[in-house]
Amino acid sequence: MFPECFIQLCEDLKGRGKLAGSKFLTVQEQVGIFLYIICQNERQRVTGDRFQHSLETISTHFKKVLYAVFSLAKHIIVPPSFDETLPEIRNNPKYYPFFKNCVGAIDVTHISACVPTDHVTPRIFII
User: Fold this and answer.
1) C-alpha distance from residue 9 to each of 15, 75, 99 (Å)
2) How many angstroms separate the CA atoms of 114 and 18, rounded?
3) Checking CA distances to 22, which of 40, 59, 87, 105 falls within 20 to 30 Å?
4) Which of 104, 105, 100 is nearest to 87 (CA)?
5) Rounded-to-integer distance, Cα 21 and Cα 60, Å
């Protein structure tokens, strides 16, 4: 991660995510610990040894950053606009005639459906 991106992430988490530094850890160190755990798939014990903090401190601040990321997600993640046909469909003559007005055919949107019991075909699976 570029330093500018890291600094911007920390600022966003402080502002919109309501993440605050503590007596022992700055926001930057909390975010660094969080990113180290999720990016390296590292255990908290190894992370505590790496950053020289107790397991309780690592666990507490990991959760704080996680909740801040969750609250930040409400501001960043927005549903897609379905006002126009996707460029992948519109620019491809192979797909456009068939999918020009279809929402979810290419973007993997699923609609829940139930089949009446009298229309269900019994299936036997042998393993």
Assistant:
1) 10, 13, 38
2) 43
3) 40
4) 100
5) 12
Neighbours of 66 (CB within 10 A): 13
Q: How far is CA 40 from CA 35, 49, 82, 107, 110, in A?
A: 8, 14, 36, 30, 33
Q: Would you state the structure tokens that stand for residue 97, as one six-digit string? A: 């005639």
Q: How far apart are CA 111 and CA 81, in angstroms?
A: 17
Q: 119 falls in which pLDDT band (50, 70, 90)? A: confident
Q: Is residue 41 within 8 Å of residue 59, measured between CB atoms?
A: no
Q: What is each CA distance from 23 to 27, 29, 30, 37, 121, in whole angstroms?
A: 11, 12, 12, 21, 64
CA distance 48 to 55: 6
- Using the predicted structure, report yes or no on whether residue 13 has a pLDDT greater than 80: yes
- 32-62: per-residue pLDDT in tens? 999 999 999 999 999 999 999 999 999 999 9
